[in-house]
Amino acid sequence: PKATHNGISFIDALFTSTSAVCVTGLIVVDTGTYFTLFGQSVILFLIQIGGLGILTFASYFSYFFKGGSSYENQLTLSEMTNSQKVSDVFSTLKNIIVITATVELVAAILIFFSLDKSLITNFSDKAFFSVFQAISSFCNSGFSTLNTIIYETGFRFNYALQLIIIATFVLGGLGFPIVVNIISFVKHKIVNIFRFNSKAKKHKPWVLNINSRITLVTTLSLTAIAFILFLILEYNNTLAEHSFFGKLVNALFGAATPRTAGFNSIDMTALAFPTVMITFLLM
Fold first, then answer.
1. Nearest-angstrom CA–CA distance, 150 and 120
2. Are 183 and 99 contacting, i.e. CB atoms less than 8 angstroms apart?
3. Where does residue 129 rank: exposed (0-12), middle (13-18), buried (19+ CB within 10 A)?
């Protein structure tokens, strides 16, 4: 009863909780106005569990508390986390937890400082909004405490906010094994930059594995093509109210969001028919 202002039917509660855990973003009641702070916190917790993956979540904590896991479970997790050795599985799972917490924290802080002070004046409300959007974005859940998501009045021209959300949901959409692999690749490059002696530089072929390469090339290609098409088709339509920079940001948002996130920064009902078909294809 404390989760909503005026009560909720069993089927609506079941639908909302299932949608949150499965990170679909489908809703039957408005998240921001229908649920209390406690109710929104419950939804956020479910999104986080769903985003991490039930198997990842349960296996890591069973290992942490019981001090071990069956060999069969480790083989399953090795396949799921793209670990080359079974012994690396729980190290990878630990990295997943740390990376998730770090990305979401950084995103929440950036979102917090990108918000117009006149929109959300209360510090705790502003902090909760930032955390909710950061977790929802990284987990690609599509849930928002705003009625029309980023298209909401006061938010649609906040291009810094849009860029932060794009970066967060793209990272989340790539998948943990690929994010871990990218971090290893970046570390390797940074270490070699600071090795002034050429003999000391380490050459590691395939630091970025084949799975990561395919995913990154595909993601960048699809996003780039969709960005150009979205910009051309919507330039004088849904993007007309924005500056040129705003058009670029919103075109990027429109190109990136259908494949993973479920957010919107423009009026989806006003999209030109070709753009709708491109969105279908991307989804």
1. 15
2. yes
3. buried
Query: What's the pLDDT score for residue 225?
Result: 94
In 3D space, the residue among 125, 130, 135, 133 whose CA is nearest the CA of residue 109 turns out to be 130
- Can you read off the two tokens belonging to residue 27? 């809703």
Q: Can you give the pLDDT at residue 81?
A: 55
What pLDDT is recorded for position 231? 94
10 Å CB burial of residue 13 (0-12, 13-18, 19+) is middle
Identify the pLDDT of residue 79: 59
Q: Apex CA 179: angle with CA 114 and CA 141, to 5°? A: 55
Q: At 4, phi and psi to the nearest 5?
A: -130, 165
CB atoms under 10 Å from CB of 261, counted, come to 26
Give me the average pLDDT of each 10-residue run along the chain (283 residues): 91 94 88 92 92 67 57 60 58 78 93 87 90 91 84 86 91 80 81 67 69 87 93 91 92 88 85 92 89
Q: Which tokens is 7 given? A: 């009560």
pTM here is 0.80
